[in-house]
């Protein structure tokens, strides 16, 4: 750094104004630097001749400036979204259900939907105004339950469960904790209590013993658990696991006592068919009779047309004169007489010639051949004697 700083200092210890660049300063030409230098004072002494100028320094090679840095990719900025707020304006009550186990859930449909909306709301328009509307809606729930024919004790228990669910939904949000809701909760206004996380499950244990009578209330508690109510299980260890087991038990209880829902979502979802089957309206024998009648009618029509087409020919034949002599018969063909072939002479075959033996042969006596005797014992072959052989010779 010292050398670099010294390169930019003039002999009179004055800074030189080099042009700034991207990597430093561009050196000024030597001629300009020499022209701006002040003359040195004359030296006194032996050597008083002219002082030669200092040796010229070679200019530093100019470097090409580096390319401009690549601009970083533009990251899309998140678009500001409106803050989700809780409101009761878009929630409308439902009509009276047809099944008795749906009476309390139908009457509290608006409050259940509000509890779900409060849990995911990031802010509230006006907490005090909203609380006032919730109080009015709880009173409307009681009126609808009375119109549906629900007993007074069930309405009171259902109101307690709903107040505890709504209070917990509000107090688990940041805006609810910062509000004055906890100082004047719904349970405190309607039942004079500040926390219902324990009593809700006590009520559930009591009504589970008589599910046939309190089936609608059991279903309402199950819906509150479904919409996020935890109560005492929020603060105990493994509370979520125990709450899941409890919900499974309630589900099995409802499955045993609640009427199974219909297989089809809507009983009238099928449109009217353009073609109807013929068999449900017409028996099979009628089909065969109709086909036979149609074939008979077609045969009669074609037969009538054939007769009508040959009728002129028949009329013309009938109008012919029948008194005319018949046509003469053709003479029979002449009979040609053929002669029988002449009889051929019969040639008799010559009689066979029988050669007769000479008289001597006829007179020779016939040798009688005796039958062979059965030889008993071993067969012994004796060679002929020489005397017999010689005599024979």
From TrEMBL:
This is DotU family type IV/VI secretion system protein. It comes from Segnochrobactrum spirostomi. The keyword Ribosomal protein does not apply. InterPro entries: T4/T6SS_DotU, T4/T6SS_DotU_sf. Residues 356-375 have a biased composition (Basic and acidic residues). Residues 339-355 have a biased composition (Low complexity). Keywords: Membrane, Transmembrane, Transmembrane helix. It comes from the Bacteria. Residues 105-304 form the Type IV / VI secretion system DotU domain. It holds the Pfam family DotU. Residues 1-78, 321-393 are annotated as: Disordered. PANTHER family: DOTU FAMILY TYPE IV_VI SECRETION SYSTEM PROTEIN, MEMBRANE PROTEIN-RELATED. Residues 50-76 have a biased composition (Pro residues). The chain crosses the membrane at residues 282-302. Residues 384-393 have a biased composition (Polar residues).
